[in-house]
Amino acid sequence: MKMLKIFKLTFGVITLTACSQTMQSAEKHSHWGYTGHESPEHWAALSPKFAICSEGKSQSPVNIVNTIDGKLAPIKIDYRPSQVEIVNNGHTIQVDFKEPTNLMQLNGNTYTLKQFHFHVPSENQIKGKSFPLEAHFVHADQAGNLAVLGVLYTLSSENQRLAPIWNNMPQKAGETFKLESAFDPAKLIPKKRDYYRFSGSLTTPPCSEGVNWLVLKQYDNISQSQVDAFSALMHGHNNRPVQPINARVIVE
C-alpha cells in the first residue's frame, strides 16, 4: 500500500430503510426522468427532497481517472439460485430478491443482495470511456448501509446469462414478472474481482450520499441487439451523467 499509509479512506453511511422511504415519498410528489424538464440537470429543482442532487459533494456516477494504490480487501461473493421478480419501474428493469440468501463479504462486513438493475449506456466511466451497459448490484448490511457493485459491459456476442431477464422484461411501467425457475445472480459476476472503490451516492433521486461503490475492472459482454431491446423498452437512455469527484479519492 503506497499512499494509504498516510491517508485513511472513510466512507459515509446511508440506511436502506431511510433510503427506500425517502424515494417512495419523493416519487409520490415529484416525477423525474432522463429527458426534458425532468432530466438529471433539473432533478434538484423538481423537489426539495432532491436538493442534494446538485448540492452534494459525493455524487455518483463518476469518471474513474485518478486513483491511488491500496491493498483493497477481496470481494467474497456467496450468491445462489433464488426466486426473483423482474420489475419495470419506469426508469429501469430491476430484479428483486425476496429472501436474504445472497451475500457479499467485504472487510469483515456482510451485505445482503437486495436487487440489481441496469443502465444504458453505463453511468460510471473508466478514463472517459463509456460502456453500452452497466449493472448495479445493490446490497445492504444489517444496519442498512449500502454497497453497490457495478459491472460494466462491452459489445460482443449475445449474453446468454442475461437471457432469462431479457426474455421476460415487463413491457409497461409498473408491471412485474416472477420467474418460475430460480435465477443464479452469481453467473453475472465476473470471475476476476479486482475493483475500484469510492464513496458515492444513489444515481437516481433523491441522490442520497454515503453509498459504498465498488466497480469491477473485468468487463462482461452484451450484444447490440440486447442493448437496443433495453433502450427501446426504456424509450431511450437511462443514465445519469458523471459527477465531480471533488475531494474524494478512488482506491484500486
TrEMBL record:
Question: Which PANTHER family does its entry note?
Answer: CARBONIC ANHYDRASE
Q: Is Transmembrane helix found in the keyword set?
A: no
Q: Which InterPro entries match?
A: Alpha_CA_prokaryot-like, CA_dom, CA_dom_sf, Carbonic_anhydrase_a-class, Carbonic_anhydrase_a-class_CS
Q: What is this protein called?
A: Carbonic anhydrase
Instruction: Provide the alphabetized UniProt keywords.
Output: Lyase, Metal-binding, Zinc
Q: Which family does this protein fall into?
A: Belongs to the alpha-carbonic anhydrase family.
List its EC numbers.
4.2.1.1
Q: Which cofactor does it need?
A: Zn(2+)
EC primary class: lyase
The residues covered by the Alpha-carbonic anhydrase domain are: 30-252
Q: Reaction catalysed?
A: hydrogencarbonate + H(+) = CO2 + H2O
Tell me the function of this protein. Answer: Reversible hydration of carbon dioxide.
